[in-house]
Design brief:
The protein is α/β, with parallel strands linked by helices. It has twelve helices and 21 strands. Among the domains are: about 80 residues, 2-Layer Sandwich (Dna Ligase, domain 1), CATH 3.30.1490; about 150 residues, Nucleotidyltransferase, domain 5 (2-Layer Sandwich), CATH 3.30.420.
């Protein structure tokens, strides 16, 4: 494989409910991340973002990682891993610390963020992220983005804390480690997706990001350039498939196929005379049914999901401050008519978010399915940059020949 010198690599592992995707990117300071490898395998060991079968999940991760290694021509040793599910909770917290040297340094920022993290959380939970929203220096200046270098005595931070249950985090980590990989960092799926699909203007104006996967619909609200609310709803694309399977009395794999091929989220888009063929259960012959009634069932479920999203936005208290509207991403956002339906229910402009800020494989860059994976690469590259690369290689080049030989022998 033709490689561009010795650029450091970063790996994103998106462990979803319907599939596991591994992305390999290479990056250099000041350049966009280049996606050079992708591996994907269906996932059966997850339900609504949580591990329910370790062995099956381990196998899915292994297959996805091997495929990505083969394509990128490298050996993956660690990855930035996604986590979501309805166990995710958030709160906004404040911390105060004195400025030690009279001038704010990075150490002061770390200290004041630690102070914001010192809140009482249940013993079965842990803090996943503490994101600074804004700083206040000596009560005088509101909303400072980066106070490093400023003079002052008292530094205050307004931070957004995201928590998850210990067990959910440990089970995902265990699955990744069983594949012989290290977890560089667990990252909230929706936070990763937002990094890949939102523009700076949208964050500034206030935007609602909705990442609709198979098992969960993840929500992030950005206000004034920073994240202000996070949530994960346990209802998404799989529920639509279940509805179709139930209504048509057809096995789930066929229902998924029908959803992808024929479904739309707005009944008026399906013409009355259109019909589709439906496979039956057992040895019964296939039947035909109008596409319009399929669209009605799908629309009803999408309406329910968007109403839950709206309720969550109201609960956050930031509804009036979301001026840039909603950005919809994830696999379930690819359905025809979904933007029009969302605009109708939420009464705000809606667009489909596709991964930006990366180069490389076209199948990844233009596809909302890969929003989380690309976000993991971007956040990973940002976190790696200050580190000394020599101490912790994220993925080391080599072992390609061995992999190829194994593949030819059918051991893959």
């Amino acid at each position: 494989m033709n490689r561009k010198g010795d650029k450091p690599l970063v790996v994103g592992l998106d462990i979803g409910t319907s599939k596991v995707t591994a992305l390999v990117g290479e990056y250099a300071p000041g350049e966009p991340v280049e996606v050079i490898g992708i591996g994907s395998h269906e996932s059966r060991g997850m339900r609504r973002g949580v591990v329910v079968d370790i062995d099956t999940t381990v196998e899915s991760i292994q297959r996805a990682v091997e495929e990505a290694e083969l394509m990128a021509g490298c050996e993956i040793t660690s990855a930035y891993v996604s986590i979501s599910g309805s166990h995710i909770q958030c709160r906004n917290s404040q911390g105060v610390a004195p400025v030690r040297e009279g001038e704010v340094t990075q150490a002061d920022l770390d200290r004041v963020l630690d102070a914001a993290k010192a809140v009482a959380i249940p013993s079965d939970q842990r803090i996943l992220h503490a994101v600074p929203r804004e700083y206040v220096l000596d009560n005088s200046q509101e909303g400072i983005r980066n106070p490093v270098g400023m003079t002052g005595v008292r530094l205050e931070v307004h931070a957004h804390l995201v928590t998850c249950t210990q067990s959910a985090a440990q089970n995902i980590t265990k699955c990744v480690q069983r594949c012989g990989l290290q977890v560089d960092e667990l990252i909230l799926s929706a936070l990763a997706s937002s990094t890949a699909v939102l523009t700076a203007d949208e964050r500034e104006l206030g935007v609602l990001l909705v990442d609709m996967g198979a098992g969960t619909t993840d929500i992030e609200v950005f206000v004034g350039g920073a994240v202000a609310h996070s949530a994960s709803l346990p209802i998404a694309g799989d529920k639509v498939t279940e509805d179709i399977a139930h209504m048509l009395r057809t096995p789930t794999p066929y229902a998924e196929e029908i959803k992808v091929k024929y479904a739309c989220a707005l009944a008026q888009l399906a013409r009355a005379e259109e019909s589709i063929q439906v496979e039956s259960v057992g040895d019964r012959p296939p039947r035909r049914m109008p596409r319009h009634s399929l669209a009605q069932a799908v629309q009803a479920r999408y309406e329910e999901i968007f109403e839950l999203v709206q309720a969550e936005l109201r609960r956050s208290g930031f509804e009036q401050r979301v001026r840039a509207g909603m950005v919809l991403t994830g696999g379930a956002a690819k359905m025809e008519g979904v933007v029009e339906l969302a605009e109708e229910i939420l009464q705000m402009p809606v667009r489909i978010g596709i991964p930006q800020y990366v180069g490389g494989l076209g199948e990844v860059v233009g596809n909302p399915v890969h929003a989380t994976g690309v976000g993991l690469l971007l956040m990973g590259a940002r976190m790696e940059s200050p580190k000394k690369r020599a101490t912790l290689p994220t993925a080391k080049v080599g072992g390609v020949l061995g992999k190829a030989l194994k593949w030819f022998r059918g051991e893959f």
